[in-house]
Specification:
Layout: E1 7-13, H1 14-24, H2 30-38, E2 42-53, H3 62-70, E3 74-84, E4 90-93, H4 97-107, E5 113-117, H5 124-132, E6 136-141, H6 152-157, E7 160-163, H7 168-171
Parallel strand pairs: 1-2, 1-5, 2-3, 5-6, 6-7
Antiparallel strand pairs: 3-4
Length: 177
């Protein structure tokens, strides 16, 4: 299959990518990240999943979400619900795992390869399901931190694993093009 016909779906767990890049000591340039995968095939969809904390006057992630929406990504957000823990502290709770999994399964017949940017162990079953549908799954996270940011079972299930640290020169903000 030629690169011009190789169809990719990019699924980014925003919190996982942010914490992984921070642990590795750099910031992601999302334009360069998308370009990196566009060099590998036709990116049919690029999703970015993140949670927004409700009742904040200014949401610091809003400029990024707006930029992503205008620059080749589909930003998928969810407002976090607040709960009180056993110590009486208010904490936000939400995750985007189901949304990501549903979008991936809906797109399975339209892509040859799924790029999953996450280290979350709960995605192992999604990876397995996508593979059963004939989709090759490429997971991006890191084992370069202590502890590793990727669950071992997710890394083993993937068809291909790329350490984000190895992509640093291609996707870090402030790098020359």
């Amino acid at each position: 299959m030629s690169i011009t016909t190789h169809r990719l779906g990019l699924f980014i767990d925003g919190l996982s990518l942010y914490t992984t890049a921070k642990a590795l000591g750099f910031d992601i340039d999302y334009r360069r990240l998308l370009m990196e995968f566009q060099r590998r095939g036709v990116v049919t969809r690029a999703y970015y999943y993140t949670v927004i904390i409700e009742d904040q006057e200014y949401v610091s992630i809003r400029p990024l979400i707006d930029w992503l929406d205008y620059n080749g990504y589909t930003a998928v957000t969810k407002v976090a619900k607040e709960f009180t823990d056993l110590n009486g502290r208010r904490k936000p709770r939400a995750n985007m795992d189901v949304e990501l999994a549903v979008h991936a399964m809906e797109l399975a017949d339209q892509i040859d390869e799924m790029i999953l940017v996450s280290g979350n162990a709960s995605f192992r079953r999604l990876v397995e399901a996508m593979q059963r549908r004939g989709v090759r799954v490429h997971v991006v996270s890191t084992i370069a931190t202590q502890p590793p940011m990727i669950a071992d079972e997710l890394r083993r299930q993937a068809d291909l694993f790329t350490d984000l640290n190895n992509l640093r020169s291609a996707v870090a903000r402030g790098q020359p093009d």
